[in-house]
Amino acid sequence: MTNVDWDAEAASFDEEPDHGLRDPEVRRAWAGRLRRWLPGRAADVLDLGCGTGSLSLLASERGHRVTGVDLSPAMVTLARGKLAGRDAVFLVGDAAAPPVGEQRFDAVLVRHVLWALPDPGRALRHWCGLLRPGGRLVLVEGVWGSVEPVGIPAERLTGLLAPIAGRVSVERLSDDPMLWGGQVTDERYAVIAQVPTSGQERGEAAAAGQ
Predict the structure, then answer these.
(1) Is-contact 46 105, C-beta < 8 A?
(2) Which of 92, 142, 147, 168 could form a disulfide with 188 if both were Cys (CB 3.0 to 4.6 A apart)?
(3) Which residues form the Methyltransferase type domain (predicted)?
(4) What's the pTM value of the predicted model, to 2 decimals?
(5) What class has domain 17-195?
(6) CA atoms within 13 Å, Cβ hemisphere of 198
(7) Domain boundaries along the sequence of the chain
C-alpha cells in the first residue's frame, strides 16, 4: 500500500464511494461527521494527504479556509480543480512534514495516512505543533483486511496521543454504512484530539501519559 503510485491512481481515485463522495447519501454522511469534528466557526483547516480534495471541499462548504497537502502532483491538480474559486490552497508535499512554514491551524484533518507512515508518533507530534492553542487533530484511521491486516488500531493511536494531547475521544465508524457506500466488517474509527490551551495543561497531559 505504501508503494502505490498515487499519480497513476489519481484518475480513478474518486470512483471509491468514500473518496469521490459522488453518492449524495455518502457525501451527506461525511458532511455530518465533519460538522461535528471541525470547529463550528470559520477556521483554518489543514487537510493532510488530501487526495483529490473531497473532504477539503466539504470543509470549504462549511466556510473553513483550507490548506491541502498531498505527495501526488496529480492528486493536487485534481483538488485544485475541485475547489477552484474557493478559499483553498493545495500544496505538493509530504503529509508527515507539510510545507506550510510558520502557518498554524485551528484543525488538522488526516484520513487514512498515519498508518502508512514509518514513524507515526513523530508525525503526530509535528502535527500537534502545527495547531494553535486549543486546536484539534482529527484522524480517520482503521485496520483493514482479514488475512494480512494493515492499519493502526485505535488503542495504539490513542496511546501515542496521550503524552502530547489533551482531551482525546474515539468515534467508531464501522457501523455507519453510509460513510463507506455499504456495510463494512473491519475496524474504522475517528480520533479527535484537543491540543491544550496552556503550558500548564500541556504539562498535565504529558504527565498523564507517563
Answers:
(1) yes
(2) 142
(3) 46-139
(4) 0.91
(5) alpha beta
(6) 3
(7) 17-195
Residue type for position 47: D
Phi and psi at residue 191, to the nearest 5°: -115, 130
Distance of alpha carbon 157 from alpha carbon 132, whole angstroms? 21
Confidence category of residue 145, pLDDT binned at 50, 70, 90: confident
Nearest to 136 by CA among 49, 182, 196, 75: 196
pLDDT of amino acid 210: 37
Confidence label for 124 from pLDDT (cuts 50, 70 and 90): very high
**How far is the C-alpha of 27 from the C-alpha of 178, rounded, in Å?**
8
Q: Are 100 and 67 in contact (CB under 8 A)?
A: yes
